[in-house]
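Quick one:
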Amino acid sequence: MLIEIMGNKAGWLTLYAGLGGGADVILLPEIPYDINKVIETVERRASSGGKGRNFSILCVAEGAMTKEEALLKKKQRAQKRSEEAYHSVSYRIADEIQSKTGLDTRVVIPGHYQRGGSPSPYDRVLATQFGAYAAQLIKDGNYGNAVAMKGNTVVHNPLSEVAGKTKFVPTDGDMVTTARSMGIGFGD
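Output:
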């Protein structure tokens, strides 16, 4: 089962969803994958016999790319994908897995509704903290800032320092290291 998560440029949502949802493979834009390594993982799990692991969950960022695609310029990569017969990267991966392994392979793309749902108590408290902090910034006449959490402290950053800048998943960061230590593959 391939679940495609939003993340065209950065794979944060996919990384957290994959780690929290028990994915066996997580494919991110920051870590170009080798389809043969992905297939090896799927086949190994499929042949695990009666160990209850004869299925695989692949969490795929919409911007995931092969090692070959990573060598292309952005426009070249977009052109290549527009010429393919697939709706998205997940359909291409699913087709490759199914044609090379014969395993039934399915794709689901939750899209924007994955952002829905009721906020957790943590979400509600965080929103309250951010709102109170932002209100104090306004009261102090301090404009042009984004409110953020750094460690366990609410802080502000000038918009000029954060606007239009993408924060990529560090390939050697804690979350990727944690996932790898749990046996989750990244196709690399």
